[in-house]
Amino acid sequence: xxxxxxxxxTPSRRFDVLYWLRRLSRNFILRRVxxxxxxxxxxxxxxxxxxxxxPTNPIEAYVNELIDQYGFTYQEARxxxxxxxxxxxxxxxxxxxxxxxxxxxxxxxxxxxxxxxTPVAKMIAKFLPWTLFSVGVSLLISFTLGMLLGMIMxxxxxxxxxxxxxxxxxxxxxxxxxxxxxxILVFLGVQWKIFPITKMRGxxxxxxxxxxxxxxxxxIFYHATMPILxxxxxxxxxxxxxxxxxxxxxxxxxxxxxxxARGLKESRIITSYVGRNASLPLFTxxxxxxxxxxxxxxxxxFIFVYQGVGQLLLNSINYRDYPVMQGVFLxxxxxxxxxxxxxxxVYGWLDPRIRVQ
Amino acid sequence: MKSATENVPSDGQFTLKVEDLWVTYLAERGxxxxxxxxxxxxxxxxxxxFIGESGCGKTTLxxxxxxxxxxxxxxxxxxxxxxxxxxVMDVLQMNDRELRQFRWKECAMIFQGAQNAFNPVLRIWAQxxxxxxSHGVTNKKExxxxxxxxxxxxxxxxxxxxxxxxHQLSGGxxxxxxxxxxxxxxxxxxxxxEPTTALDILTQRSVIDVLRDIKxxxxxxxxxxxxxxxxxxxxxxxxxxxxxxKLVEVANxxxxxxxxxxxxxxxxxxxxxxxxxxxxxxxxxxxSPPDLIDPPKGCAFHPxxxxxxxxCRTEEPPLIPVAQDHEVACWHWxxxxxxxxxxxxxxxxxxxx
Amino acid sequence: xxxxxxxxxxxxxxxxxxxxxxIGLLGVIFFILLSFVGPYVVPxxxxxxxxxxxxxxxxxxxxxTDSEGRDIFSQIVHGxxxxxxxxxxxxxxxxTIAVLFGSLSALAGxxxxxxxxxxxxxxxTIPQFPLLAVxxxxxxxxxxxxxxxxxxxxxxxxxxxxxxxxxxxxxxxEFVEAARALDLGTRHIILKEILPNMxxxxxxxxxxxxxxxxxxxxxxxxxxxxxxxxxxxxxMLSLAWTRGAIFYKGSLWYIMAPVAAIALFQLSLVSFxxxxxxxxxxxxxxxx
Amino acid sequence: xxxxTNGVLELVHVERTFKVGRRFVRVLDDISxxxxxxxxxxLVGESGCGKTTTxxxxxGLLPPTxxxxxxxxQNVWEMNKEEFRHYRRAVQIIHQDPxxxxxxxxxxxxxxTAPLLRHGIAxxxxxxxxxxxELLRIVDLTPPxxxxxxxxHQLSGGxxxxxxVARALTVNPEFLVADEAVSMLDVSIRVxxxxxxxxxxxxxxxxxxxxxxxxxxxxxxxxxxRIAVMYLGRIVEIxxxxxxxxxxxxxxxxxxxxxxxxxxxxxxxxxxRVHLRSLDVPSLLNVPSGCSFHPxxxxxxxxLCDAxxxxxxxxxxxxQVACHVVAREQGVA
Lengths: 357, 353, 288, 333
What we know:
The complex is a heterotetramer.
Chain A: H1 6-53, H2 58-70, H3 74-85, H4 93-105, H5 120-155, H6 160-174, H7 177-191, H8 197-200, H9 214-251, H10 254-261, H11 266-304, H12 309-319, H13 322-350, H14 352-356
Helix pairs in contact in A: 1-13, 2-3, 5-6, 5-9, 5-11, 5-12, 5-13, 6-9, 7-9, 7-11, 9-11, 10-11, 11-12, 11-13, 12-13
Chain C: H1 2-15, H2 19-36, H3 38-41, H4 72-108, H5 110-125, H6 128-135, H7 144-154, H8 157-171, H9 174-181, H10 186-194, H11 199-222, H12 233-245, H13 252-280, H14 282-287
Helix pairs in contact in C: 2-4, 2-13, 4-5, 4-7, 4-8, 4-11, 4-12, 4-13, 5-8, 7-11, 9-10, 11-12, 11-13, 12-13
Chain D: E1 9-20, E2 23-35, E3 40-44, H1 51-58, E4 66-71, E5 74-75, H2 81-90, E6 91-94, H3 108-118, H4 125-138, H5 144-148, H6 157-169, E7 175-179, H7 187-204, E8 207-212, H8 215-221, E9 226-231, E10 234-240, H9 241-246, H10 251-259, H11 265-270, E11 313-314, E12 320-321, H12 324-330
Parallel strand pairs in D: 3-8, 3-9, 6-7, 7-8
Antiparallel strand pairs in D: 1-2, 1-4, 4-5, 9-10, 10-12, 11-12
Helix pairs in contact in D: 3-4, 4-6
């Protein structure tokens, strides 16, 4: 093995960086982006046809609603619906598909059938932030808190605290989140009247202006309290248990024993040796859970009457508002893919072993 | 206990003195008595090797010396006296602060399976800094200088290694990094637990040579724990043979290999093939090591021993000095001495045939 | 005869080895009995009793009455069957697909492997619950099988990947290599060498697939996306919800009865998984 | 010493490559040897030298990507189904790790009776049991009834290895590939297992391909057979065991032998060492040109060793060496 002097190694390292960049762009990032685009395309196409395969089309849905709720006769309802929609559902699926794809390529998600003329993009822009906000805050809380508690449980394993926390964690993580939401609403809201549920409805108080003020921030957190509480309660158990078992495994690793033998301070071992390594695998799970929670947000948002994409999706399904449904699918899919990218990036950043490969 | 003290040179110098150490593990079936009353003295500057097969308690013994036993283990009784200059401390009585300072600065333990001894997410340099800072050494330049010297000593390129992540180094390199790191704070006592297991022959050789080299150049006492008899033959001044949680023989390296007096040591030495010359007959020790939850009464080796008599089944032989630098725990060591362990070999063949 | 009792005692000891798991098993048995035998014992109360609306629990109405004065307990008894059947069918379908696809993917390799993995990847990318919500529209009135099929067909990918990884690693194990050298045949290797080593894993995942199916189906029914009617825990939830659980204090038992039934069943299933590890692991099996 | 004129099992210029990412790695290159009935051939070398891959190719678990493996003169991978079955049963393998070589979900009884029943060696379960008990007795697991109904986890490492051997013996093999079969066992158990394997050879005429990294074990077990030393996928020296151990010719063999510590303080401390020019083992992804040992070799000659790959040549005493310098000095180049 020859030793290269510093003067020699600098240019060769610079060359290395270029080389790696090229390889990376050629192999890694580009391939991932292409794969992601392909996935998005397949999802768009699949959902396009699936939503149109659903029984009852938008007009029928509206007709049924008019008859059910307003007592219209079928003919009246039919006329009203035709006037409102003014869309050509008779065109072949294929033509519709090509049209949709063409518009999509221009960044146009189409307009809603039901709220006539409203661009889908605008509707999503109105609803999506609330879902991202409530889910994001919840995940942040449950992830950090869960990791912390998980580590404490691992360090105090066998203690009363560990048993109590493990039991609570297992219980809350096995009950469906909407049931937990209902219990919160029924007990804290209706039975014990701790939460004024009628006031807490919606994503913000009526008349509140979105701005960067203390009042606004307080208000949106106030309205998101119950969804966030539900999300946190039902997801934190998973993080706790995962972190506990990872920590126990990490504590058994040679490098932790060696770190102790090296006389390192306990605080340093807990953070940089145990904590960092034990939390690594959780970051991949984080991406999966983002997808799961955003996808399942419909139930929680329905229960708490919270205006997020879940609500938008439910409404659009009921109205058979195809463009909106597809828009929501597209957005959630992209969110999931982005979350995956982010998780991979964070993982690679935290774990040098991945970085090199 | 007495016997251990008698072997200390007349000036009473020792680096480490272990007295009647008992360690147990809690298992599902009961208490595993892993170390059962071990006493020994480590003299300044010497290399003492502990040999024995898996489950004999040698690793537990090593871990208990720096109190790194897993939470299921417990030191039931005993003393681990460590001496620096004129001060003598019992490791088992140290508080957390003292213990942390004792580890690595006074006693560096280099583990088996160095493959995994380093935090995978930190560069070697960061881990070196961690170690130094924990013991109050904060001058980066000084640390770097010392580390570079040590790396050269163990034949590593300092620049490259310090910048590397553990996974970028080969197994042999990592083992040498750990050895160098062990010497960073100039500890008077180093414990090596299976330092060459899982390394290839040529790499193993380089590690052994490095160990011998640094041992010559620096002044420290060394405890070597290994199942590999040839490693002890290479490096040890004295060898302690362990069986079923006890020391059965402690002798200088020549006596251990050429004139063993405990039947178990005889069996062990003659079970290992050598390279030079013609093919020799080897023996295997019939039976298997005892269950340490309920070890046999008397001498733990008696169920596998051809010399065993009624006394061996009932009374436990103490470790007694029988010659200069030679202690053995066997009621019949004189017979072994007379027949040169022949009965052990004949017995093994009879059982195998 | 004595060896029979010995076996019984051994089995019992094995089952009670893990306390939580044993309680889970008892819970699962309880709900199965409740939902499949219960309906023959407890008749469904369909009679509106205006004077007995929202009664608290009593000896007559064990769990109180609903918004029309009907016995809630009888509804719980009759409302479990569909939930359990859908859960089991869906779990069974998705696990079967996962085991087949996962093993096939691992053992066949090449383009088969690539195709299955690509498919799994795409199904995983589509947001699950929204897709179910749309597909649920296809389910005709009270069609349990179709709902189970849809749930099962959409939830195999994660497990498929896991099974594939397991088979890939087991296939390289030395005892499988030895079986190949002994020419024991592909069938023997799959059924006798590889599969038994994955049984606890598969069984545990079957249970988890069941809990996922319960989550989804009750959610869908609750949102009114699946046209189910009559006695079903999900329908009960939905009715209780829309008829005043969020306004009226007295409706507590009406809403909480199905909530508790579903939650307890889920808990029982999850606890039961702890026992499966022991049942399938010979190391634990022989130590008790 | 056994003379092997015509090997029953032959490897002829065997090559094996694996695909790693997008590159092909040649793990074995030009491996040729033959093993006759009752022979012992010991493959030694450090990790990554290709000895395990060779073992798998001999056992028919992995096809070579070049060259041929012949059984009774016939190319194994061109055999018809019936012939292949015969070959497959004739060559059995014993693995290194006693903990993963037995299926943890099967009892010893199943492990042993499954092959007996499948191949019709036993006609029914009763016969299979009798045969299995006899096999347990052959591998010194006595009384066999104590072991018959056990699960692997209830056995010690040494006992498991014996069950592995018994399993291999169910099909009356002529060859056993023992891949580091004793290296995970404690020393006191190791010898008895080796002695048992030796007895099988004496009593049943079983031949061995014995793979190990431990030259002392190789010397002990293969004293009457041959040793082949492998380095980076090639055989660098092959010959009768006493010759290889006591009179090594190839610089790599010399280096290995001089590096091994021994359980004999005087001998091991006074041993003369061969000093290599480099400690780094080259990667298989980047095998050095010419003789792959040249960057480390003390005999290295520029322009010769890095230019052409040395072939195995006879240097007398039944030894073949692949080294330019040694060949020239012996006057056989």
